[in-house]
C-alpha cells in the first residue's frame, strides 16, 4: 500500500498508529526510514535499518530462530556483529530471506517511510518483494511526498509499474477540512477551540495538520486567535526547501509572496519585469520552484505556494521599507485590470492591500470603500465588514484635522458597526459604536446621539461588558429624541425603554411607554419603527390577548424591511408571546424559516442564536437527530457571546442525552468562558441546562443548590422559573432516593426542606406556576404533571404510578416526547415497586425503550433495560399481522389463536397474554390447548419452537410489534 500526500499531511502519523495497533496484536513491525543523503548512495539502507530495528527489539528466541534460517544474516546486521557486504545481489537475497523468515513466524508489516528518497537498490528490492509475493503473512506500507516527485523523477515509472499489480493499493491523504481541523485542535488543546481560532489556523495552515500543530505552540484553549509571530520551528521548517532554490528562484518566490494570494502568471510576469526579472528567467524560476514542491499551479493560469504560510515567512524576509516598491508594482499592475462581481471585489481588496503596503494611504482608503460597496452589492457581508474596518482605521489618518468631514466619518462608523454586528464580530461593532458616539455632539445632533446611545448599550450587553439592564441609557435615548415626537428615533427609543422595563419586571410602566411608542411610530410613518413598537407592546403585555395580535402584526410588517436585525428582535417578541401560550410548534416553524432567511442575508450572529433556540425546541420534542444537525450548524458560525453560549448550552444537553457527559462538560466550559456569570444570566435559561448536566454526572446536590440560588433572578420570563421548579423537583427526588438508599433520614429531610423552600419561592410570585392563559396550551399542563410526579418522588409518597401515568398522558398530548419517555420509565419503575404484573409494567417500559433506541438516547436506554432486567420483562413486542401464507401446521389457526401463538413465541406468560389481548387467563389456556392440538405439539414451548423453526419468528408472526 502506498500512502502519499504532501509533507505534513499525516502520512507517517497514520501509518505509525496503524502499526502500533498491529504490534499490540502480536504483529511484527519492521520500520525503515529513507533519508535525503544527497550524492551519497547507501544501498538497501531503509531495509537494513528496518531489520536492525527488529533485531534490537525482538525476543532472543525469535531472533535466534530467524538467524538460523538465514545463515548469511549475521554478516548483514551490525546489531549481531555483522557488516554490510559489497555484493548487491547477496544483500538482496539476505534481505529477502530475513523478511520471509520473520513473516513465516508471525504476521509482519514492513514500513518504508519517505520512499521518494530511497536509493535505486532499495526500490528494486521493494519491487521484488511485492512482485514476488508468496503465501506469506506480509504487508508492505510505504509513504512518499507528492511534491518531491517533480517532472522526470524516476519514482514515476517505478510507481506506475507497481500500481498495475493486483496486490497493490493506493491511499492519498488530503489536507483537512475546517471541521477536521477543529477536531484536531480539540484533541491538541484538550477542549473545543473558539471558532475564530479555527478560522485563523485554517487560513494560515490551509488544512495541513503538521503546520496546524506547529501554529498552536504556546496557544491555550481560551485563545480566540493565533499570535502574530510564527513559531521558530515552523519558520525553519518552511524555509528549508526555499533555501535550496537558486538565487533567481528565491527572489521570484519573494515577489510572489508580496502578492498575498494566488495570482495570474501575466500579473506576476509584469511585476517581475519591474524588478528586472525577464520572462525567460521567471519561467525557469517557477519551474524550479514547482519541481521543488514550493509553488503549485492552480488551474491553467494561477500560481501560489503549496503551503500558504511560506508566503508569510518570505514576506518577513524583507527589511523595513524594502517591500514598498514591490507593493507599488503590484498596485500598478492591478490598476490596469478590471473585473465584475466577486472578482472585482477581490481586485479592489488587493489594490487596498498594495496601496497600504506602498504607503499610499489615500488610494488605499478609496479602494477599501469601493471594495466594501461592491461587497455589499453582491451580499458578501464578511468581506464588506473587513473593508469597512480598514476604511475606518485609515479615515482618521487620511482626513486628520478635517472637521468638516466628521459627519462622514460617523456615517462610516455606523456602517462599520452594523456590518460587524451582522457577521458576529461584536468587539469590532462595539468599538465602532463607541467611536461614533465620541464624535457626535448631543446638543447639535440629538437624534443621531439617541440612536447611537441605544446601539452602544445593546452592543455592551451583546459583548458581555455589562450584565445589568441598561435602563438609564434607554431613558437617556428617549430624553435626547423627545424634542422630535414625530421622529423614527423617538419611537424606537420609547420601544427600547419599554422592552427594558418589561425585562426588569416593571410591567405597568413598560406598557405605558409601549403605548407611547406605537403612537409615535404611527406619526413617524416608519414601518421599521412601527414593527418595533408593536413588538415592544407585545412583550410588555405578553399575557394579554392583544399580545398575540401585536406581535403577529409586528412580524408581518417587519418582513417588508428585509432588515435581519429588526426581524430578529420582532421574532423574539413573537416567540415569547407564543411560548406563553404553549404554541411551541409554531416557534419551531418560525425559527426554521428565519434560519434560512438569515443565512442568505449573512446575519451570522443571529443565525447562531436562532440555531440554539431551534435546537432547544427540537430537544423538547425528542427530535435529537434534527437537533444535532442544527447545533452543528450553529457551532460552525460566528456569533456574539450570548448567541454562541446558547448553542453551547443546547449542545451540552444533547450530549448528555446521547450519553457523552465529557463533551457536555466541554460545551458548558466554553459557554461559561463566553458568559462568566452564566448561572445568574437571564434570557438563556442556562440554569436548566446546567442542572441537567449535574444530574447526569451524579451531582443532584449541586444541581438543587444552583436552582435554589438562581430562582429569584428569574423575574423576566416566568416560564423559566417554572422550568427551574421542575428540575428542582428532579434533583430533590434524586437526592431523596440516594439518601434513603443510605438510610440517611437527615439527608432525606434536608433535601425535602430545600425543595419546599424552592417551591415557596416560586409560589410567592405571580402568575402562579404553570398558569394556562390560552385553551390551546398543552405544554403547561404537561409541565405541571411532571412537577407533580417528581414532587411525589421527592416526598417519597406512595403509590406514585397514578401521577406518573398522568404525566405520560399529558406529555403525549403536548408532543413532549423526551419528557414522555422519561416519565414512562418512572411510571414503569413505580408500577414495579407497587407490585404490578410484568404485563402492566411492560407497557410504559417498552414505550420508553422504543423512543430511546430511535433517538439514540443511550443513558435512558440503559436505565430502561436495567429496569427491564430487574423485572424480568422482555422489551420486544408482538408485530403487526402478516398477510403471507403461513406454514402448513398453522394454516388452520383462527386469528385469535395466531395472536396467542405470536405472544408465546415472544416469551409471554399466560398473564401477559391475557393483559395484551384483553381476555382471561382461562381463555388463554383454552386457546393454547387448541394450538397444541392443531399443530400436533405437546407443550407451549414445543409449539413456540416449531413456529420459530418454520420462520414464524416474533418479527413476522401476526400481532407482533417491533
From TrEMBL:
Organism: Kribbella orskensis
ATP-binding found in the keyword field: yes
A Pfam family recorded for this sequence: AAA_16
Top-rank taxon, per record: Bacteria
Record-linked InterPro entries: AAA_16 (IPR041664), P-loop_NTPase (IPR027417), Sig_transdc_resp-reg_C-effctor (IPR016032), TPR-like_helical_dom_sf (IPR011990), Tscrpt_reg_LuxR_C (IPR000792), WH-like_DNA-bd_sf (IPR036388)
Keyword annotations from UniProtKB, A to Z: ATP-binding, Nucleotide-binding
Protein name: Regulatory LuxR family protein
SMART domains linked to this entry: HTH_LUXR
Gene3D superfamilies recorded: Tetratricopeptide repeat domain, Winged helix-like DNA-binding domain superfamily/Winged helix DNA-binding domain
Stretches assigned to the HTH luxR-type domain: 886-951
Amino acid at each position: 500500500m502506498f500512502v502519499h500526500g504532501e509533507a505534513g499531511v499525516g502520512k507517517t502519523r497514520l501509518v505509525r498508529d496503524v502499526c502500533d495497533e498491529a504490534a499490540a496484536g502480536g504483529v511484527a513491525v519492521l520500520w525503515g526510514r529513507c533519508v535525503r543523503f544527497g550524492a551519497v548512495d547507501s544501498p538497501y539502507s531503509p531495509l537494513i535499518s528496518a531489520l536492525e530495528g527488529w533485531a534490537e527489539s525482538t525476543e532472543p528466541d525469535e531472533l535466534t530462530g530467524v538467524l538460523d534460517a538465514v545463515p548469511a544474516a549475521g554478516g548483514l546486521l551490525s546489531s549481531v556483529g555483522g557488516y554490510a557486504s559489497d555484493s548487491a545481489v547477496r544483500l538482496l537475497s539476505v534481505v529477502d530471506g530475513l523478511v520471509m523468515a520473520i513473516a513465516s513466524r508471525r504476521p509482519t508489516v514492513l514500513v518504508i517511510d519517505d520512499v521518494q528518497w530511497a536509493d535505486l537498490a532499495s526500490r528494486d528490492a521493494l519491487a521484488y518483494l511485492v512482485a514476488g509475493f508468496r503465501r506469506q503473512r506480509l504487508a508492505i506500507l510505504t509513504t512518499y511526498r507528492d511534491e518531491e516527485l517533480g517532472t522526470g523523477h524516476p519514482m514515476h515509472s517505478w510507481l506506475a509499474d507497481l500500481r498495475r499489480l493486483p496486490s497493490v493499493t493506493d491511499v492519498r491523504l488530503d489536507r483537512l477540512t475546517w471541521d477536521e481541523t477543529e477536531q484536531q485542535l480539540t484533541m491538541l488543546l484538550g477542549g473545543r477551540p473558539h471558532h475564530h481560532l479555527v478560522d485563523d489556523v485554517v487560513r494560515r495552515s490551509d488544512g495541513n495538520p503538521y503546520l496546524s500543530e506547529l501554529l498552536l505552540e504556546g496557544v491555550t484553549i481560551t485563545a480566540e486567535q493565533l499570535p502574530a509571530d510564527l513559531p521558530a520551528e515552523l519558520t525553519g521548517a518552511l524555509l528549508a526547501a526555499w533555501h535550496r532554490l537558486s538565487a533567481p528562484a528565491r527572489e521570484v518566490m519573494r515577489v510572489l509572496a508580496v502578492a498575498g494570494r494566488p495570482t495570474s502568471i501575466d500579473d506576476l510576469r509584469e511585476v517581475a519585469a519591474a524588478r528586472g526579472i525577464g520572462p525567460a528567467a521567471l519561467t525557469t524560476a517557477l519551474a524550479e520552484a514547482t519541481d521543488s514542491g514550493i509553488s503549485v499551479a492552480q488551474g491553467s493560469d494561477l500560481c501560489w505556494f503549496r503551503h500558504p504560510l511560506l508566503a508569510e515567512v518570505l514576506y518577513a524576509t524583507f527589511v523595513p521599507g524594502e517591500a514598498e516598491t514591490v507593493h507599488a508594482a503590484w498596485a500598478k499592475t492591478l490598476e490596469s485590470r478590471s473585473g465584475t462581481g466577486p472578482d472585482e471585489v477581490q481586485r479592489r481588496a488587493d489594490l487596498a492591500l498594495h496601496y497600504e503596503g506602498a504607503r499610499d494611504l489615500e488610494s488605499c482608503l478609496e479602494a477599501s470603500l469601493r471594495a466594501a460597496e461592491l461587497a455589499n452589492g453582491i451580499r458578501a457581508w464578511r468581506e464588506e465588514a473587513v473593508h469597512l474596518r480598514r476604511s475606518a482605521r485609515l479615515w482618521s489618518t487620511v482626513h486628520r484635522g478635517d472637521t468638516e468631514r466628521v459627519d462622514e466619518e460617523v456615517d462610516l462608523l455606523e456602517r462599520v458597526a452594523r456590518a460587524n454586528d451582522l457577521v458576529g464580530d461584536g468587539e469590532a461593532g462595539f468599538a465602532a459604536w463607541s467611536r461614533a458616539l465620541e464624535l457626535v455632539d448631543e446638543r447639535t445632533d440629538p437624534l443621531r446621539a439617541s440612536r447611537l446611545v441605544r446601539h452602544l448599550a445593546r452592543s455592551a450587553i451583546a459583548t458581555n461588558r455589562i450584565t445589568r439592564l441598561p435602563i438609564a441609557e434607554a431613558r437617556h435615548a428617549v430624553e435626547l429624541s423627545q424634542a422630535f415626537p414625530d421622529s423614527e428615533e423617538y419611537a424606537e427609543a420609547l420601544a427600547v425603554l419599554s422592552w427594558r422595563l418589561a425585562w426588569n419586571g416593571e410591567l405597568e410602566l413598560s406598557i405605558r411607554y409601549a403605548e407611547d411608542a406605537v403612537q409615535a411610530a404611527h406619526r413617524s410613518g416608519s414601518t421599521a419603527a412601527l414593527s418595533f413598537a408593536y413588538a415592544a407592546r407585545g412583550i410588555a403585555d405578553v399575557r394579554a390577548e392583544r399580545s398575540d395580535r401585536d406581535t403577529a402584526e409586528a412580524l408581518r410588517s417587519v418582513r417588508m424591511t428585509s432588515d435581519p436585525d429588526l426581524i430578529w428582535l420582532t421574532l423574539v417578541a413573537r416567540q415569547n408571546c407564543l411560548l406563553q401560550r404553549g404554541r411551541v410548534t409554531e416557534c419551531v416553524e418560525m425559527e426554521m424559516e428565519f434560519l434560512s432567511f438569515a443565512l442568505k442575508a449573512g446575519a451570522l450572529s443571529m443565525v447562531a442564536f436562532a440555531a440554539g433556540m431551534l435546537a432547544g425546541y427540537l430537544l423538547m420534542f425528542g427530535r435529537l437527530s434534527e437537533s444535532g444537525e442544527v447545533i452543528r450548524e450553529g457551532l460552525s458560525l460566528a456569533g456574539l457571546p450570548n448567541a454562541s453560549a446558547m448553542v453551547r448550552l443546547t449542545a451540552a444537553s444533547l450530549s448528555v442525552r446521547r450519553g457523552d457527559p465529557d463533551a457536555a462538560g466541554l460545551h458548558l466550559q466554553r459557554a461559561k468562558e463566553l458568559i462568566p456569570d452564566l448561572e445568574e444570566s437571564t434570557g438563556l435559561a442556562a440554569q436548566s441546562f446546567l442542572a441537567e448536566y449535574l444530574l447526569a454526572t451524579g451531582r443532584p446536590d449541586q444541581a438543587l443548590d444552583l436552582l435554589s440560588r438562581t430562582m429569584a433572578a428569574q423575574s423576566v420570563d416566568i416560564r423559566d422559573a417554572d422550568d427551574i421548579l421542575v428540575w428542582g423537583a428532579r434533583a430533590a427526588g434524586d437526592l431523596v432516593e440516594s439518601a434513603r438508599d443510605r438510610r440517611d433520614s437527615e439527608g432525606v429531610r434536608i433535601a425535602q426542606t430545600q425543595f419546599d423552600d424552592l417551591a415557596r419561592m416560586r409560589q410567592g410570585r405571580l402568575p402562579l406556576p404553570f398558569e394556562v392563559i390560552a385553551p390551546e396550551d398543552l405544554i403547561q399542563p404537561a409541565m405541571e404533571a411532571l412537577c407533580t410526579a417528581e414532587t411525589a418522588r421527592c416526598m417519597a409518597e406512595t403509590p406514585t404510578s397514578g401521577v406518573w401515568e398522568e404525566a405520560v398522558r399529558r406529555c403525549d398530548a403536548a408532543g413532549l416526547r423526551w419528557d414522555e419517555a422519561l416519565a414512562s420509565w418512572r411510571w414503569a419503575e413505580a408500577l414495579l415497586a407497587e407490585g404490578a404484573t410484568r404485563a402492566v409494567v411492560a407497557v410504559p417500559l417498552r414505550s420508553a425503550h422504543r423512543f430511546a433506541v430511535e433517538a439514540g438516547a443511550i443513558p435512558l436506554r440503559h436505565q430502561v433495560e436495567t429496569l427491564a432486567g430487574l423485572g424480568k420483562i422482555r422489551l420486544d413486542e408482538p408485530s403487526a399481522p402478516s398477510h403471507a401464507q403461513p406454514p402448513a401446521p398453522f394454516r388452520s389457526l383462527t386469528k385469535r389463536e395466531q395472536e396467542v401463538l405470536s405472544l408465546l413465541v415472544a416469551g409471554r406468560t399466560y398473564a401477559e397474554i391475557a393483559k395484551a389481548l384483553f381476555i382471561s387467563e382461562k381463555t388463554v389456556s383454552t386457546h393454547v390447548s387448541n394450538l397444541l392440538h392443531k399443530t400436533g405439539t405437546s407443550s407451549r414451548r414445543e409449539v413456540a419452537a416449531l413456529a420459530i423453526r418454520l420462520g414464524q419468528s416474533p418479527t413476522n408472526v401476526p400481532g407482533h410489534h417491533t
